[in-house]
Every structure is written in structure tokens, then in C-alpha cells.
Amino acid sequence: xxxxxxxxxxxxxxxxxxxxxxxxxxxxxxxxxxxxxxxxxxxxxxxxxxxxxxxxxxxxxxxxxxxxxxxxxxxxxxxxxxxxxxxxxxxxxxxxxxxxxxxxxxxxxxxxxxxxxxxxxxxxxxxxxxxxxxxxxxxxxxxxxxxxxxxxxxxxxxxxxxxxxxxxxxxxxxxxxxxxxxxxxxxxxxxxxxxxxxxxxxxxxxxxxxxxxxxxxxxxxxxxxxxxxxxxxxxxxxxxxxxxxxxxxxxxxxx
Length: 255
Ligand SMILES: Nc1ncnc2c1ncn2[C@@H]1O[C@H](COP(=O)(O)OP(=O)(O)OP(=O)(O)O)[C@@H](O)[C@H]1O
Hints:
Blueprint (H helix, E strand, L loop, with lengths): L2 E12 L2 E12 L3 E5 L6 H8 L5 E8 L2 E2 L5 H7 L1 E4 L11 H12 L16 H13 L15 H14 L4 E5 L7 H18 L2 E5 L3 H7 L2 E6 L2 E6 L1 H6 L1 H8 L7
Parallel strand pairs: 3-8, 3-9, 6-7, 7-8
Antiparallel strand pairs: 1-2, 1-4, 4-5, 9-10
Helix pairs in contact: 3-4, 3-5
Bound molecules: adenosine-5'-triphosphate.
Adenosine-5'-triphosphate binds next to helix 1.
């Protein structure tokens, strides 16, 4: 199977503090790779460096064989990497449809200045596409209020719609079910599974809920103090004595 993402000897951190130490990870196309680890292990930092928010101090990140280590975040998005955040990043003052319209227009071919050509008034078919995407994800496309009033779960769904509007081939989801009640959480997992099935996208996500981890993951990597201490199939990781000791052995919400 071809490689979607290849992380090779990555070091990254903040200022002089190194958080990620020699992280390597291969993610095959179509894989659903879950990164787990205790609080503060470096999962979010890892995601931030994959999407270009935290620069690499050393090592390489390849996406579909292309070295993206030095590429700015927005260029990684244009290359096909989509990302969601623990706290949904949406335009709170705009309606849900307007939010998705912005994302669709950002996908449009760049103009001669190398920037997406955003329009003052969107095309009707763009609005229709945005409305259809929202409906598909279970959101009301006629909602005329600003997105800031949406529930936490709906904001995450809206963020997902915006990310999908860019038609990414690799989805990076940082704790997609964080802060959700269990009903919402199950619905979210089903939604992510359906999206991955329908789009054929590769998935890398972090998650604390072990039910979600073992339901979604085809491979799991464990971060501990910024280092990968185990990587393998769910069964292999579950059986790993060190992982059980540092992480899985504790009850409740791990980490
Ligand atoms: N902006 C920052 N500046 C300095 N240090 C930071 C910054 N963000 C995170 N850190 C530190 O980096 C380490 C890893 O944090 P990170 O958020 O990546 O862990 P995590 O595994 O995602 O944790 P959680 O499960 O709580 O989300 C922590 O020690 C944290 O304090």
C-alpha cells in the first residue's frame, strides 16, 4: 500500500523546549491511525507540526511522497491535508452556510496573484453545495443565526463540513469527540467513519475515549513524553505491557 503520511525523525517544540523527540510514523493510504497518550504527551503538538503550525526542529514530514516539512500551513491544506481542532475554528459571526461557502471558495483555483479568488457574492451553485454538505452532516442549512450560537457538537460538525469542502485526502482530527455527551460522541464516530468510507480519505486522529480509539483505529501509536513508545494494530497495542502500565491500565478517561 502507498504511503499517505511519512514522519521521519521529527523533533519539534516551543522556543527552546523540545516536546517531540525523534517521532517516526508511517501512515498507509486508507489507514485510520489513532495517536493516543497521557495528557501533555505531545499529541496536539504533533498535530500542529503536521499541519505547519509548529515548525520542525529536525526530521521530515512527507505527504504522498512530497516533502512538506517547510511548507506553510495553508499550502499543506491546498496540497490535500485537512485538519480539525479541539475547539472548533469557525467564523462565529457568519451563518453555517456562509462558513462553508468560504471554505468552498478557498478551494477554487487560485487567481493570478496566487490567492483563492473570494467573491463578494457567492455563486448560487456554491451556496447549494454548501447547503447540501450541511444537510449531509445533519445540520440545518436554513439556519440564519450566526454560527457562534450552535451547540458544541454542531460547531464540530460545521468545522468538519468546512474541512471536507476542501476535499482533503488526509484528515487530521484532534480529539473530534472532546467535550461531547455520549450520544453526540457516538453520532460523531459514525459520521467520521462514513466520511472516511465515502471519500476514501486517510485518517489520523487523537482521542482519549478508548471505545472510540478501538472502534475507529486500524493502527494505533502511543506517545509518551514526546516519544512514540508503541505502534501497531489495536490488538498489539492492547497487549503491550508498557502501554498497559503507562496508559491503558488506569480506569476511566485515560490520560
Ligand atoms: N504553546 C506552547 N508553548 C509552550 N509549551 C507548550 C505549548 N503548547 C503545549 N506546550 C507543552 O507541550 C507539552 C505537550 O502538550 P500537548 O498539548 O501537545 O499534549 P497533548 O498530548 O495534546 O495533551 P492533551 O491530551 O492534554 O491535549 C506540554 O508539556 C505542554 O505544556
